[in-house]
Write a structure and sequence with these properties.
9 helices; about 0% strand; about 280 residues; single chain; mainly alpha
């Protein structure tokens, strides 16, 4: 699992780097400022970077702040949500060994001090052991659901920004086009098609910025959501697997009273019962 997570992280970082390079190359590229016109007069061509700077406008800082938030959320996600902090193979193995050796007190102390999802959820389940196996299962389900909801809420911010960014870009574009047509009206026809086309191109910069942020945010939202889902499911499954050690022994068909529930009911067995 850890190797798979590392491969996915490398792939995502590669995609992010490629996206940054793809956007940075056109911005840094400068067109030839001198072209020959039919009258052999030098004409200055506006570069793409100049258009972006002119079209930055009042909506540009807002979209820039959103892009910074997106990058921060992505870094925070990959730094805090990892396999080692969700379900640790060595911790799971050690917990099973302690239970099989019937060192229940040491097992509870060990998982209680753990900061992983596996340790936290299992601790809640073990604390409800005095109420029976069904109570332990219910407590584990509730705690795992709380973990899953909390992690999904943190990832959901990427989805929110991914949906808002294009709308902000469209808002800036509409405002820019209104301004361009307003200037055309004020000049009473002296505002030529070239000036109108330039004004519209500047207005479209906001849409471009919004789409770039939206693509980055929504793409990473899908990756982060899948990581949260896979890790929480794996941690929950590991807890359920360990919890099976405490499932009550089946009631015999004959012989009067059945065996009491819990792990103590299997003291006569060579090894704990596993479902």
């Amino acid at each position: 699992m850890n190797s798979t997570a590392r491969r996915r992280t490398i792939i995502l970082l590669t995609v992010l780097a490629a996206s940054i390079i793809t956007v940075a190359v056109p911005l840094s590229a400068q067109d030839d400022p001198i072209l020959s016109s039919p009258t052999d007069e030098p004409v200055k061509v506006t570069s793409f970077l100049d258009v972006v700077i002119q079209g930055y406008g009042w909506i540009g800082p807002i979209i820039t702040v959103l892009s910074i938030i997106v990058v921060g959320l992505i870094i925070e996600h990959f730094w805090t949500i990892r396999w080692a902090k969700m379900v640790n193979e060595s911790e799971t193995r050690a917990t099973r060994e302690l239970i099989e050796l019937r060192k229940f007190k040491e097992c509870v102390e060990r998982v209680a001090g753990s900061r992983t999802m596996f340790g936290d959820v299992l601790t809640i389940g073990l604390r409800h052991g005095r109420h029976g196996f069904d109570a332990m299962q219910e407590a584990v389900e509730e705690r795992a659901g709380a973990w899953r909801s909390r992690l999904f809420r943190r990832v959901e911010y990427l989805n929110i920004i991914g949906n808002i960014a294009p709308l902000l870009g469209l808002l800036g574009t509409v405002a820019g086009m209104i301004e361009a047509f307003k200037k055309m009206q004020e000049t009473q026809g002296a505002y030529g098609p070239e000036e109108l086309a330039g004004g519209i191109s500047i207005a479209l910069v906001s849409t471009l910025m919004g789409l770039i942020v939206a693509i980055l945010a929504l793409g990473c939202f899908g990756v982060c959501r899948n990581r949260v889902d896979s890790m929480t499911v794996a941690a929950h499954a590991s807890v359920i697997d360990v919890l099976e050690y405490f499932r009550p022994a089946p009631t015999p068909a004959m012989g009067g009273m059945g065996a009491p529930g819990g792990a103590d009911a299997r003291e006569s067995s060579a090894a704990p019962h596993r479902a």
